[in-house]
Amino acid sequence: MADAMRHLGQQLALRLACLSARYPRTPMTVKSLEVMGLHFNSPLGIAAGFDRFGRLGRRAGALGFGCNEIGSLALAATSRLATPAPGTALLGLNLSLDADLSLHTLRAGLACAWPLADYLTLNLIGPNSAALLGAEQRPRLRQLLATARTEQRRLDRAGRRVPLVVKLRCLPGRVPLALVELLLELGYDGLLAAHDPGPPATRQRYRAWQNPTQQTQACVQIEQLRQLCGKQMALISVGGIQTFEHVTARLAAGAELVQVHSVLLRAWPWQAHRLLAGCKY
């Protein structure tokens, strides 16, 4: 019953978002920026999971968002995606990187996704990715990530560059620095750091993010990652952002972009402008 209610709530929030995009409020003056060679009208984006199949898509720009990341989707499912509707938000496509993924499926999925999105995110926080994160699977993970980078360079030769990002989980006291070093070595464009206070994945987790200690911990993690990444790799922060103060703190800690999800399910669409207030000049 609880899962059904969450699904219903998410569908309602998405419908409200699509309706709001037709009748946007007066635009706010927000901070635009260049990240990964792309121009974002705002550093605030929508995280994967809210608009999984791209119903809102680029139209999220009418609400003031700089990007909207659809998915997460299996790489084999990218061939069934439709061309997204036009709009001013950049479109990310979040793709699951599973332990049993073949190199052929990886290459084919990236090739199908390439024309549809402005950037691609390889998701390593899903349940099917867990097996790849063990020490014994590190050679296999390296092979998949290296293959994706090789395919990116091949596709780039067609004249349209699509940055590659990897999504990693950051738990309390467990920032995945070794994996970040691997991404730096392979030359990835960006890191999407998913800050997670730990289980359970319920309303208790949402309430936990209202604790200033949790927010401070996320900012400390961003600072650690920024120190490691320097200017070599873009840094995106997601997880627990509920107010414009949270947005401002994550950006001040070193994130170039931030993403929101759960707050949109609880206060959509009116909360969006309050969050964007943290991105004003």
TrEMBL record:
The keyword Nucleotide-binding does not apply. The keyword Calcium does not apply. SUPFAM superfamilies: FMN-linked oxidoreductases (SSF51395). Pathway: Pyrimidine metabolism; UMP biosynthesis via de novo pathway. GO terms for biological process: 'de novo' pyrimidine nucleobase biosynthetic process; 'de novo' UMP biosynthetic process. InterPro entries: Aldolase_TIM, DHO_dehydrogenase, Dihydroorotate_DH_1_2, Dihydroorotate_DH_CS. It comes from the Bacteria. GO terms for molecular function: dihydroorotate dehydrogenase activity. Keywords: Flavoprotein, FMN, Pyrimidine biosynthesis. Its cofactor is FMN. This is Dihydroorotate dehydrogenase. It comes from Pseudomonas borbori.
